[in-house]
Amino acid sequence: MTYSGRALRDLQADGWEITETFHPGGTATDWHEHEIGHFCLVVAGSLVDEGGDARRDCGPGTLLYFPGRVPHRDVFLESGARCLNLRPPRAGTGALGVAPGDGEARVLLCEHSASWLAGRVYDRIRIAAAHSDASSDELVDLLAADSFARAETPQDPQWLGHARALIDEEWASDARLGTVAVRVGVSRYHLARKFRERFGCSVGEYVHRLRVTQARHLLLATDASLSEIAFTTGFADQSHFTRIFRRHIGTSPDRYRRAA
Questions:
Q1: Spatial distance between the Cα atoms of 90 and 243, rounded to a whole number of angstroms
Q2: pTM greater than 0.85 (yes/no)
Q3: Regarding the domain delimited by 6-144, which CATH topology (the fold level of the hierarchy) does it fall under?
Q4: pLDDT tens for residues 101-141?
Q5: Where along the chain do its domains lie?
Q6: What share of the chain is helix, strand, coil (3-state, %, to 5)?
Q7: What angle do CA 113, 117, 119 make, to 5 degrees?
């Protein structure tokens, strides 16, 4: 499968085609479509995806799913973008509920859980730089994730959506469980329980994922020092940043930046 931009690596694992691409800032693709549906994770940088009447601003950690034969174009902003393109096995594409080439006129914005899984696939590939380690449970889980374009359901209390919005906006500063609970008017226990039921992780884990996702972007797209990245992403200090990053990614920030 051919993608725009410069291919940084191209490999296969368990029937998946995995291609990492780099797109210089200030460039744009022509309108195009792909025969087979695929995921696209913005690992670092940013882009604007245009398709139909929709325009999506996509920053680090954004995961899109493009059904087959959906016309779209991408505009890469000043910093450019590094993307991970993941094309599932043909036999498994139907698990998304979108058949290849069905002419579906929309791009699916994936939920946080699927975006995190795709990021973990990228981290495994980057750290190992080997075909054998590209195969992981995350690839299987990605197809099974019930997390595509999932909007708030009628069963979700309004305060829960408000809580998540606060965390998404303030993850680098004051997104602690107790603070968020007070601001949305519920107890810490109630917020913790409902948040885990809805999003599959604790509030603290969710915040750490957002911070690690942004740190990944800064490590790959900037020359900022580790202490600067720690400060920017809301960690107490560089050692705290290193400890959390290593726990989630499997290596230190410095080694991650220097990996192939």
A1: 39
A2: yes
A3: Jelly Rolls (2.60.120)
A4: 444 457 888 888 899 999 999 998 898 764 445 556 788 78
A5: 6-144, 152-260
A6: 45, 25, 35
A7: 115
